[in-house]
Amino acid sequence: MLNRNLIGGEWIAAHAATVNSSPSDTSDIVGEYASADTQDVENAIEAAANAFPAWSRTTPEFRSDILDRAGNEIIARQDEIGRVLAREEGKTLPEAIGETVRAGRIFKYFAGEALRLEGERLDSVRSGIEVELIREPEGVIGIITPWNFPIAIPAWKIAPALAHGNTVVFKPAELVPGCAWIITDILARAGIPAGVFNLVMGKGSVVGDAIVKSNRVRAVSFTGSVATGRRIGIGCMERGKKVQLELGGKNPLIIAADADLDVAVNVAINGSYFSTGQRCTASSRLVVDDSIHDVFVERMVAAMSRLKVDNALKAGVDVGPVASSSQLAQDLAYIDLGRKEGAKLAFGGEPLQLDTEGYFLQPALFIETDNTMRINREEIFGPVASVIRVRDYEEAVAVANDTEFGLASGICTTSLKLTSDFKRRSQAGMVMVNVPTAGVDYHVPFGGRKASSYGAREQGKHAREFYTALKTVYIRP
Ligand code: NAP
Fold first, then answer.
1. C-beta of 246 in contact with ligand 1 (< 6 A)
2. What is the pLDDT of residue 101?
3. In Å, how far from its chain's centre is CA 4?
């Protein structure tokens, strides 16, 4: 069954397959998964378009019950699904189980949102006329997701799309079809009508491209790299489609002079290196006040030397492998570049040979860097962070904001004054005080500014901005 896509309610065999192997142990084969061609995508889009009129008229309760059943099953099977996630993506088993539970909770949250969709009624400025604002589903939504959160990101797009009465064509990243297949199987058994939800696993350049180019897809929600996102954004605009892009980050974490150093080191270690640093919200620039720079670096190095890097499935592992050989090559190329730019490695940066053949990398900390270096301007997307030494808080804020990105930012401080100032002046979409830049709630908006995001926010009740169209109705009763 893994070598089949769900199209129009049927599990359809594909003409080609991809082998999904574990980055912790390349001899561990998770499965052989279908790889769709453009005809499969066309069929999926047609099925979604045909299913839309009936699905958009179902009661909110009908849609809510399906999403709730799916959420319950995901949570009930958290250990088993988490294991597939850890095997195919490489985050540690506890992280993978945590992500699975979060995905289940997201389905349950949007089961509630299906029941809470509301409009507005106003008096017109003209006498005798009433005005109503109605929210309606958009139609067929194309969902294109990255590999780093293989179950949570699909969940936070699929659940609101369905909750608000849209039909879906879903293309997961080729690297992580396992979780996508499981979500699809669960939704199919939770009672989703034929054609309402379609899975087309396969290459971005084939499947993703066909979704973007189809005139029957009304809107595309994409998470991934800036380069791909911008191409998709332009493709959607050329065809008059609604588009939502969640892209990269180069997130700063300020360690202020008055920071509690225990908190600061914990927050930096978690934000920079957990999930192997492969989070769009990872803290990649540690902006550290001169007065505490040396002691902070010393304590970071001590903490990093205690991190256990190994197979994601082993107990007690803190950092799993890098997700793929190409991502490992990118991380190593940036580490090499950092050295050439004059930065010094205070810790790590070497590939590790362990018991199993995998893509293991000792988490790296650069010091003696400045904010003009490419390692501090471009997203590396691995367990690599830089320390940028600053004179004072004012310079720290300037450095934090001096980036093309604006996803998350953080500060470690014990001062209410700095907290209050930073939360206003940070040019990021999400600001964290004494908590890691990575790690967010699912019931509040997620997204960034500048090059990090484009379009409406994801998650929480604000997700409806993207997944519904607003209609204004004038009535003379
Ligand atoms: P990516 O290479 O841009 O791929 C993302 C998705 O787009 C994949 O499903 C990919 O398919 C597909 N794709 C590739 N080329 C395409 C094309 N021409 N047309 C349509 N779709 C295409 O990103 P990634 O490497 O998977 O993910 C890492 C990136 O995601 C990082 O930059 C990270 O910061 C970002 N990210 C952002 C957020 C956020 O919310 N801001 C969250 C997580 C990750 P394939 O599987 O075939 O490559």
1. yes
2. 98
3. 25
